[in-house]
Here is the input.
Amino acid sequence: MVVRHTMKSVTERAIDVMIRNDRGGFTVPTDRLYPFQWNWDSALAALGFATFNADRAWQEIETLCKGQWPDGMLPHIIFHEPDKDYFPGPDVWGTNQTPPSSGHSQPPVVSSVVLQLVNQTQQLNKADSLFSALFAYHQWFHDYRDPDNTGLVAAIHPWETGRDNCPDWDSGMAAVEIPVNLPAYRRRDTTQVNPEHRPSDRQYDQFLSIVKFGKDCLWNHHAIYRHGPFLMADPGIQFILLRADRDLLTLAHRVGKTREAAVISDWIDRSLAGCDGLWNPSANGFCAKNLRTGEFSKAITNASMLCFYADAGSETQRNHMLDHANEIAAGVKYTFPSWDPRDSQFEPQRYWRGPVWAILNNLIADGLERCGHDSLAARIHSDTLQLIENAGFSEYFDPGTGAGLGGKTFTWTAAMYLHIRDKST
Ligand code: GLC
Here is the structure.
């Protein structure tokens, strides 16, 4: 008897996940848990699409840019269609934008993705049409998140960093008071995934208190920077923006935008110098910093490791970071944990307090490769593929056991599988 082999390959299943999460022009991060378009999820999803459908990859970015605010911001969530199962929805944010959106941004990886798409598809004309939106987005980050031109770019909410409940934010969050008139609400996330792995209820109240502040001041981002309850500098945003500025500069040269190129070069110089402000001498590494108090977070995260990706830091600083990377990698089965396992606050299963995220792995490995640290980059790539092959397209993974955690069938995990596989073949 001939047994037909009908099992799909992991690559085929990754494509299925992306197609299933496609809502026509944009993907949702995963069904139900996150039913809208998220900024950096979408940008990174485009890298997955690029491996099998270049037009669809470009479309993902074009749809993201449709949510751009008049001042240039690309918001972190675009609520294209209503979904009553999601909290906090458009009424909680109260941003009065069309299409409805949240009120702050997310790590600005999009221009770097566009440069990769150009390199892969040779469609420079597509980048040309997107250029002014991307330029305005970067300008927004520099103007509204660093209004005093310090070179250090701030985040006004842990959600803006994309690493929601990382201990990096504990110092900033300690000052966030919950107003007595915070409207009552019911969380939806904990009804859909294991509450043990999600942010605590108190943290959630605080997240919503920051949103309330933004809504109450009509999302005036200068006022939020000066007086908001939370203001921290994030190595993730700092390094991702710096790299994105470099990539936008390459695009500017290619599409002949001389005036913009000069402006971008200034941003790069300023941000490069600003990175020093994230150097925490007691951790001997790049750490998050509370811009209200000057206090540093105490440990190394997967975002700290993006210094290589941004080509930032002195040689001595990079050597220290490489030592950290090697020690951390030696302490886990699967790289790269979101919080330093040498620190007592490490929690291998709780969201951004320890687990591995495929998207960060991809960016870290990209940077390590650029800086010539090929073997560590190869380990991170191969760990990422193995995690996904063994545990599926989970939102994040336990660095010790490799268990898949959080939402299943995640777009960006599938996209990273396709992208890393594609790069390594
Ligand atoms: C969570 C993550 C964030 C991501 C979003 C959608 O909030 O922390 O980084 O963009 O989910 O996947």
The two ends are 35 Å apart (CA to CA). The CA atoms of residues 278 and 287 lie 6 Å apart. Residues 10-424 form a domain with the Glycosyltransferase fold (CATH 1.50.10.10). Strands lie at 37-38, 77-78, 154-155, 232-233, 279-280, 285-286, 289-290, 396-397, 404-405.
